[in-house]
Amino acid sequence: MTLLDLPVGQIALVNEVLLGSHGQGLATRLEAMGIFPDKPVQILRKAVFGGPLHIRVGSTTEVAMRRSEAALVTIQDSN
To answer: Which of 1, 18, 38, 58 has its CA at 20 to 30 Å from residue 29's CA atom?
Structure first.
């Protein structure tokens, strides 16, 4: 399951960031925003018409992310 598949409001843990066509640069940028393995993430809002996702990382950090990038973040259930 990827971050893109996570329903709004549900919390999950990051499993890994796949490199995809973006290479290591995306993984490094997401890590700088706090998105790394075993970190809790929550989708706060999904913009319409394929727009970005509004994500809470941990308990306080909020970021916007492209759907194509969210599809490269694998997650696991936080329970």
So the answer is: 1
For residue 22, is pLDDT > 90?
Answer: no
Residue 53 · residue 2 · CB < 8 Å: no
Q: DSSP class of residue 46?
A: E
pTM value? Answer: 0.87
Burial call 3-30: b when 16+ CB within 10 Å, e when fewer: bbebeeeeebebeebeeeeeeeebbeeb
Whichever domain contains 13, its CATH number is: 2.30.30.90
Which of 13-17, 20-24, 52-56 has the lowest average pLDDT?
Answer: 20-24
Amino acid, single-letter form, for residue 1: M
Tell me, what's the pLDDT at 79? 65
The DSSP symbol for 6 reads S
Residues shown for the chain: 79
